[in-house]
């Protein structure tokens, strides 16, 4: 009998911190040449910020800088911050302080960088502060702190971008910014309005990633469903024809590249139903997986949130998606304790969960964020009530997850291997996104496996969030 991981109420309520500077990175193992300047990177927050970090490092590599995996080996450190929640801001300030203590020369960028006075109020000695996706300003700050010393015979633009994720999967950002005005969110103030990339540029990047060995593309943006709206869904040259800047067309083309394609941050607009037949078609690589931030179920709470989609027909939409694609995995996040949330409204959410039977669920306790309009709403929920509702929500979602995973015992499925250690292999099914969902563990017959392998397994055991299986 395998030991199962117990449920704990200590589950992270904020976006995970991604600290590539603190982990061994084989892709940075090339010894720097004599005199080559070295830069370190701390990347915090969501995958969108991670993509920004990768772009900055790619540019620095092309200019002749080496990438240091630790503070001591770097001549300066870039801290890419998160500013979504006040707790995330505090974590960013802590990371800046740690970098200053360990290295001394620190350049700050990212979402919190939009609040320079806030940062310098705590850390006045940082060398420079820039906002999100301000790549040129970051490079200028690096040039000032650590002048480049390129060797034109050695330092060439790499064939592929510097990656901070394992080699077998990569995030693919399709747009910046957001046009929504949700009262609890300040992302549009920090990252601006929707700005979609041209479809052909996204597809070309995706094709290069797959050619370089990437097995899974994780499509991200602030609002994936809105992709192309700002471009009026213009046509782009691709292959022997054209492709429209629209999420349906883009998804269909990505599915033909020979890799898994996973969609994140999809708002439940009506045309999302057009994506479901693509996911149900086994001839392409688009996974039957939707990450949809519902946030709540009660119409009055959604109205106070100023959410762009009402919940009235959401259950009907979910039923229609499952009718078209029975194997679809639905992931979502919710906020409990939003200002004015009554016990009846919260109970509505629990009852809605019972009906929706979502596969993967995350939950935040509401907290004020400086600059958010929700701060001014009346009837803020006491902390002890928010904690109680969070516990009840997680207990409900855990029971749903446990039953759904138990139903997979005995089934055969394809999984992707993330890592292989002495005692087993850690894998993910099509239902599991890296970092945020569960895992499938193989603890027998795994010796010949490597990270990035796609293998077929039979599931033989389940816990609340994870599976175990054997290789067929």
UniProtKB/TrEMBL annotation:
[4Fe-4S] cluster 2 binds at residues 178, 182, 185. It holds the Pfam family TRAM_2. Residues 37-147 form the MTTase N-terminal domain. Its EC number is 2.8.4.4. GO terms for biological process: tRNA modification. Residues 164-403 form the Radical SAM core domain. GO terms for cellular component: cytosol; ribosome. InterPro entries: Elp3/MiaA/NifB-like_rSAM, Methylthiotransferase, Methylthiotransferase_N, Methylthiotransferase_N_sf, NA-bd_OB-fold, Ribosomal_uS12_MeSTrfase_RimO, rSAM, rSAM_horseshoe. Its cofactor is [4Fe-4S] cluster. It is an enzyme of class 2 (transferase). SMART domains: Elp3. It is found in: Cytoplasm. Residues 406-472 form the TRAM domain. Binds 2 [4Fe-4S] clusters. One cluster is coordinated with 3 cysteines and an exchangeable S-adenosyl-L-methionine. It comes from the Bacteria. Catalyzes the methylthiolation of an aspartic acid residue of ribosomal protein uS12. Belongs to the methylthiotransferase family. RimO subfamily. This is Ribosomal protein uS12 methylthiotransferase RimO. It comes from Neptunicoccus cionae.
């Amino acid at each position: 009998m395998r030991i199962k991981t117990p449920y704990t109420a200590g589950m992270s309520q904020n976006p995970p911190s991604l600290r590539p500077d603190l982990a061994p990175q084989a892709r940075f193992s090339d010894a720097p040449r004599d005199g080559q300047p070295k830069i370190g990177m701390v990347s915090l927050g969501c995958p969108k910020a991670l993509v920004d970090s990768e772009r900055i490092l790619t540019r620095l590599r092309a200019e002749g800088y080496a990438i240091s995996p630790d503070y001591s080996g770097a001549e300066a450190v870039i801290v890419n911050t998160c500013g979504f929640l006040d707790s995330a801001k505090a974590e960013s300030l802590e990371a800046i302080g740690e970098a200053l203590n360990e290295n001394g020369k620190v350049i700050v960028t990212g979402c919190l960088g939009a609040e320079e006075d806030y940062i310098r109020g705590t850390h006045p000695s940082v060398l420079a502060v820039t906002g999100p996706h301000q790549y040129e300003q970051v490079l200028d700050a690096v040039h000032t702190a650590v002048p480049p010393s390129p060797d034109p015979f050695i330092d060439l633009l790499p064939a592929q971008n510097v990656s901070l994720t394992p080699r077998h999967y990569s995030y693919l950002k399709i747009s910046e910014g957001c046009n929504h005005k949700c009262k609890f969110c300040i992302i549009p103030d920090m990252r601006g309005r929707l700005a979609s990339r041209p479809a052909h540029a996204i597809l070309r990047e995706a094709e290069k990633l797959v050619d370089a060995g990437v097995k899974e593309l994780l499509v991200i943006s602030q609002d994936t469903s809105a992709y192309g709206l700002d471009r009026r869904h213009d046509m782009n040259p691709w292959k022997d024809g054209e492709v429209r800047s629209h999420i349906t067309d883009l998804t269909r083309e990505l599915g033909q590249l020979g890799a898994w394609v996973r969609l994140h941050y999809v708002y439940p607009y009506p045309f999302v139903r057009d994506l479901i037949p693509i996911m149900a078609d086994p001839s392409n690589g688009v996974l039957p997986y939707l990450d949809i931030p519902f946030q709540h179920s009660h119409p009055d709470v959604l109205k106070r949130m100023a959410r762009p989609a009402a919940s009235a027909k959401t259950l009907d939409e979910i039923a229609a998606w499952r009718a078209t694609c029975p194997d679809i995995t639905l992931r979502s996040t919710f906020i409990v304790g939003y200002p004015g949330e009554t016990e009846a409204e919260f109970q509505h959410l629990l009852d809605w969960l019972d009906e929706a039977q979502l596969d993967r669920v995350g939950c935040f306790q509401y907290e004020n964020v400086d600059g958010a309009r929700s701060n001014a709403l009346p009837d803020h929920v006491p902390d002890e009530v928010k904690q109680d509702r969070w516990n009840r929500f997680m207990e409900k979602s855990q029971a749903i997850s446990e039953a759904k995973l138990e139903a997979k015992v005995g089934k055969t499925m394809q999984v992707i291997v993330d890592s292989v250690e002495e005692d087993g292999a850690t894998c993910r099914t099509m239902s599991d996104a890296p970092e945020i969902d569960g895992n499938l563990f193989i603890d027998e017959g795994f010796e010949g496996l490597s990270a990035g392998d796609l293998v077929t397994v039979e599931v033989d055991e389940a816990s609340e969030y994870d599976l175990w299986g054997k290789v067929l």
